[in-house]
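Tip: read the tokens left to right.
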């Protein structure tokens, strides 16, 4: 199984789940617009492109005159920043030495400590996109941080405020207040790059500021990289390491084509980058409202296997098979039915089922669009008005939960209704609603929203079963946790 790591230095809660390679598209029933919607489109006016209209960005280097790596690095480095973060955490932590924590999956980061609160420091990277101080980085670099300090190539350090962040795409926008206009980097077009193109990565690996590495684009549209439903990465062999998170991946024209985000800890020639075009669609929303609003259709879909294609009388395996239409949803109002195969959405073909959530998420809320479905072998055209994705927080759950204080967590049964409300796949197991800071559960890497499905290799489906299994344990239990599309075993200790 391939494991991948989100790589901010010492970022405590960064996920490092392994990809589940045993699943097939037909098993990935999704709640459209909940855990798969991509980004909402933005009308590309000059006002929306604040990184162009308000910046003094470097002009892209003309084709045929590309400099060597050294000249390119010298040209763009003033627009690349190192980011230092800190937060106050419980002292019940040990962990790896500074600079090495994120090379280890979270179950192996150690524990210990004297119990006293202390400052936990981290590091990442970013890049300037406007002369007045807007900077792009990864969400996991700055999430939950008490302080964010940005360091520039010339030695200037400024405190940054968090303008907006989007956990689903791992993109964040922060802001500094410079005395003089900053040098902004031009944003390129990630759709035109191809495997084999040269790229350059600049960042802050292991706290080594403005490290420059070069390589090529290895592949495009890598999905299921870190177990998320929004994965659509550029793969590169340019060396990127813990601390590179949020830094730019650049083409030879000096344009940013991606945001370095994840690595494969077992192969230092495999790194993953969020395409810059994805960032372009959400940056205006992050600046204006601090978050991203996505479109919602309200169907559960799955992929089409050869067997399903034959059963439904389809000529091929294209499209997204609707296995459920949610009540009071845009899909229901439009007349979409269970068993329909959606083959086109808003004039875009749906060749593979994973494409549909992105298309829905990119559609502005309340915009009427055309949907073509295949029903009983016939194509039908329907009109649907896309709704707004409701993304409830676990803190707002009204269902009763249970305090498991000896482990430092609270949990409740994952019912079908709760699964639908939260956009969590499946309706079995127990969902974590709260993790106490500094507790054994937090030290093990358990997070709010995780679903416990096994204890000591025995399946559990209810809170009662979980409590009974944990009661049978002496000092620790082997927990199987599901987060998104991935599962991982976690040793959970009882509080001493």
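Filled-in amino acids:
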């Amino acid at each position: 199984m391939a494991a991948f790591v989100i790589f901010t230095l010492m970022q405590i809660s960064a996920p490092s789940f392994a990809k589940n390679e045993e699943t097939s598209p037909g098993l990935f029933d999704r709640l459209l617009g909940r855990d798969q919607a991509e980004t909402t489109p933005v009308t590309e006016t000059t006002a929306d492109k604040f990184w162009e209209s308000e910046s003094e960005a470097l002009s892209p280097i003309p084709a045929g005159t590309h400099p060597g790596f050294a000249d390119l690095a010298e040209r763009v480095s003033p627009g690349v920043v190192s980011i230092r973060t800190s937060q106050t955490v419980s002292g019940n932590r040990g962990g790896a030495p500074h600079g090495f924590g994120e090379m280890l999956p979270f179950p192996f980061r150690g524990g210990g400590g004297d119990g006293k609160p202390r400052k936990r420091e981290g590091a990442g990277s970013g890049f300037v996109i406007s002369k007045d101080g807007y900077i792009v980085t990864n969400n996991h670099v700055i999430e939950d941080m008490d302080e964010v300090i940005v360091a520039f190539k010339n030695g200037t350090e400024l405190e940054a405020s968090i303008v907006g962040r989007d956990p689903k795409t791992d993109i964040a926008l922060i802001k500094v207040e410079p005395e003089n206009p900053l040098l902004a980097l031009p944003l390129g077009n990630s759709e035109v790059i191809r495997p084999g193109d040269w790229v350059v990565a600049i960042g802050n690996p292991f706290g080594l500021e403005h490290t420059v590495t070069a390589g090529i684009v290895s592949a495009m549209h890598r999905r299921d990289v870190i177990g998320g439903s929004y994965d659509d990465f550029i793969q590169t062999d340019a060396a990127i390491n813990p601390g590179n998170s949020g830094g730019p991946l650049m083409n030879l024209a000096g344009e940013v084509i991606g945001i370095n985000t994840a690595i494969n800890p077992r192969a230092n020639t495999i790194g993953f980058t969020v395409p810059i075009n994805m960032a372009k669609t959400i940056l205006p929303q992050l600046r204006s409202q601090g978050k991203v609003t996505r479109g919602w259709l309200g169907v559960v879909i799955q992929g089409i296997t050869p067997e399903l294609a034959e059963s439904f009388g389809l000529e091929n395996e294209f499209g997204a098979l609707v296995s459920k239409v949610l009540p009071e949803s845009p899909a229901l109002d439009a007349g979409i039915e269970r068993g329909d195969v959606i083959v086109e959405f808003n004039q875009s073909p749906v060749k593979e089922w994973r494409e549909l959530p992105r298309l829905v998420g990119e559609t502005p809320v309340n915009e009427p669009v055309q949907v073509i479905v295949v029903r009983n072998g016939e194509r039908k055209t329907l009109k649907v008005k896309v709704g707004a994705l409701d993304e409830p927080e676990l803190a707002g759950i009204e269902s009763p939960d249970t305090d498991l204080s000896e482990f430092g967590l609270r949990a409740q049964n994952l019912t079908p209704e709760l699964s639908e409300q939260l956009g969590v796949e499946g309706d079995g197991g127990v969902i974590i609603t709260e993790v106490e800071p500094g507790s054994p559960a937090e030290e093990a890497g358990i997070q709010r929203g995780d679903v416990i499905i096994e204890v000591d290799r025995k399946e559990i489906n209810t809170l009662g079963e979980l409590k009974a299994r944990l009661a049978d344990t002496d000092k620790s239990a082997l927990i199987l946790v599901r987060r998104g599309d991935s599962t991982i075993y976690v040793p959970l200790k009882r509080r001493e």
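Confidence is low (pLDDT under 50) at residues 7-45, 92-112, 392-399. The longest strand covers residues 211-222.
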